[in-house]
């Protein structure tokens, strides 16, 4: 994380392991009593009380009114600890090839304001200027206390080093080794985190969505690229060499097409939206066919175009089954802009998953659902929240 | 783990988290000073000293002679803590379809005695009798103190619940829901752990082999079955539904053969030793061909049989690349009895891995090496050691 120019004011919560554990648990799992926290975290009650004290003093946590406990030990009042969602706010911005999408979230990742801005120039300086302008737009739209916004999370696809805020490689912006965290902190005066967009979305689901409390969890995104964020043994998987969750480049068809990555028969080379469009153009002999037209043809019953979507759904299902067979997540969420054609995919993804999931791995529930536009930006904000809670 | 009939004597080391962390670190990483332990584990020096005390008193750890430190702080003597390998010994037994393979290991998983016994009857009672006899053989061959052997680790392929010692399903013994841990504890008087054989082998590599200190690590075994043990974020992956590491059932060929699992084009349906033999028989028109004969034909230059091994190596390489692309292990060890034909596989495994590994994932080193016969049994002993150290 890169501190902004008012870093002196960024005292933030204490960094001791017990405080971090207490803060994380209360934030992600809702109001929790000290007794339950002690049991959950393997700490003494005294240690929980000690860890919670500065979090309460700094306004991040507060005690709910004492309630009568029921069940064993009934009668002793318990005062659950809860998060003050308005204690601090976070800007999240997803950078795409042609647009910036931004949100302001509270500490519980509830969206409080949204804004968008077209991206006209992929040059680093131009993008930074637009990020700054988008932040101004968001502050204008944000109904809360502007002085409580001190952190900015950025996300984009590509190879990102979260710890240093470095964009190692962004294929669509043609960036290499851009120190985006440092530059954006200078430009905005906010403390900045940078993360890969799929990992950021996974972080949001892990802390604030379907992945809460799951020891393992997977989020698969379907679009031009096909990506996957993985939580295993309670933590996001980042890969020893910076590569993880590359479900789009699993080989599922030995006689399939060559992929831009150098592989053959990769999921993305069959089921990415560009790949689907190329196949549909080929089958119809219409080189100017758009993706929406291909979807319309398939929905209208065009056999050969339907077969392209069927094959794509099967490839995605094989990739998802590979995730289930290898790491056995508790649940898998499938989402992304490619799911606009959801009705053409859904049953083929499921059929292929069920065929290839090994034994009890088939019991892993799939949530296949579209992704609201601001979810990607909220993911970026969630990473910023994590950088506050887990310094 | 199931305590044996002398469980009263099994006081064992303390179960406090700090003691477990100190014991694990000293055991797996060799002699470590208290200062280094405190830094590594995020504990105070006082906490390390307090945690180590009972481990020293019980004879599990001892202090090496004080040595002069060099570098910063030079001059203050440091007395590294080390494990007493002879403090306790562990029997490990791998159960195969036709043989029991046993070892006695010390606390550092060094093999001190080995024995084998043919398995004549897959009936549970008969196997238990043979396990008891093998244990007697091992005690006879073991040159150390018999009274220090109090634990037995069993491993076999199939669906095993390590926490309850239950064999849910063993395909080759045709067992379902056999409480092997409890039964073996009754039969031998030892405290028993039961684990899947591939996971046990992975545990041995993680604590005592190439995986020491790795946050993530994979072990792939090639044979009749093709399996994989995974360590991610420092812990063995067990799968939310009991399924993990099923690399043999990744779909890598959309037009490949049907697999016994119900899938299509699974790695195992192409590259398992049974699958290779079936394809070689088909290509040669010799239904009585043996695996060794197929290997000899391929080595002799028989084009069509060579192609079977080439295809198998490619399928295995795709499976390994899937592991690298999804979880990004620090290193991958490929081993197993199927690698007797190592020379026919090796280059195809590597070529296919390199083609399919995405970007920097290709930097993950592959160690392709044969597996000494007692390694599987040592894996079972390693799980037993873990049950002592992490109660």
TrEMBL record, chains A, B:
Transmembrane segments: none
InterPro entries linked: ATPase_NBD, ROK, ROK_cs, WH-like_DNA-bd_sf, WH_DNA-bd_sf
Keyword Transferase listed: yes
Statement: the UniProt record of this protein carries the keyword Kinase: yes
GO MF terms held by the record: kinase activity
One Pfam assignment: ROK
Protein keywords: Kinase, Transferase
Domain of life: Bacteria
SUPFAM superfamilies listed in its UniProt record: Actin-like ATPase domain (SSF53067), Winged helix' DNA-binding domain (SSF46785)
Membership in a protein family: Belongs to the ROK (NagC/XylR) family.
Entry protein name: Sugar kinase
Lineage summary: Bacteria, Bacillati, Actinomycetota, Actinomycetes, Micromonosporales
